[in-house]
Specification:
Blueprint (H helix, E strand, L loop, with lengths): L8 H8 L3 H9 L9 H13 L3 H8 L7 E6 L5 H16 L3 E6 L4 H13 L4 E5 L4 H10 L3 E5 L8 E4 L1 H20 L6 E4 L1 E2 L3 H18 L7 E2 L1 E2 L2 H15 L5 E4 L2 H11 L11 E4 L13 E5 L2 H14 L6 E4 L2 E3 L10
Parallel strand pairs: 1-2, 1-3, 3-4, 4-5, 5-13, 6-8, 6-10, 10-11, 11-12
Antiparallel strand pairs: 7-9, 12-14
Helix pairs in contact: 1-2, 2-3, 5-12, 6-7, 8-9, 10-11
Amino acid sequence: MKKTGKTTIYDLAKLTGASASTVSAALSGSWRQRRIKEGTALEIQRIAKENGYTTNLQARGLRKARSGLVGMIVPAHTNRYFSTLSNAFESEARKRGLCPVIVSTLRDPAEERRTVETLISYAIDSLFVVGATDPDAISDICASVNIRQINLDLPGTKAPSVITDDYLGAKLLTEALLKAMKERHGHECGKVYFIGGSKTDYATGQRISAFKDIMESEVGGISDDQIFANSYDPNASTRDAETMIRQNGGLPCGLFVNSTFAFEGILRYFSRLPREQFSDITVGCYDYDPFASFMHFPVIMVRQNVKMMMAEAFRIMENSTDSIEISVVEPSLVQPRTMPEIRK
């Protein structure tokens, strides 16, 4: 039950069973230096919020002193795109004399919130949120303690965002895919499939829209069974590749792969197939990895302009504007550099 009137640190000490100094450390962000357990600190913060201590947390956020720490959360470290974003973030932060803190949240909304709360307890000055499942929920947490936030990769409605022009990138990739198929075969050679991502994801939605539009204008459209947008998880893409091949009666001539996460899963299944089955396939991948250029079948890739995205994100962060703007950065196509046949 909430206490009527203004809640004090001493009230919270009674409610939590902790000392007043422990409560103060948990709310000020100095609990780690005091060697207080994270679970204890988070529990105190939770009870403080439930009992109307939010204004005290906001006052801490309004402090004049700056820690010099700047945080960033990413879905994963293993993907080249996200690791490149992390490197660009670190470079931009260090140029400004800041100390970057980068944490992976595994595309788990609960983990995103826990991680953000932990970063706040370290007294970060600002937060960069990359590819979050629920960026607006994170915005609510940041707003409660007056911490600046900016979204990258996926936009939110409560904080500025910097994103790739996903519709344009997918349009260019689909056009290049169809052109390469025609140049290789001189005629239409069957269905083109889309695999990877999630239909509820903004970026995937933009890419599917562009894919459908170009397929409609160039070949008269596609059916719903040509789109497998169930997950970014490689294991899901492995299963989708198996279903696609069974459904198509073999490998298709064209395949739009939505990220290297999905490509990894597809290649797991492809590795079980004989080499000769790949003579007709052309792949377009909405992501970039230089090793994909050396597949024994053509792989056209979209490379997002990470350096420009991060520079724009820091520019917006430093402007201290209250505008919820969305900055869009154009990607580029990387043509395949397919390995020649190895002759015996």
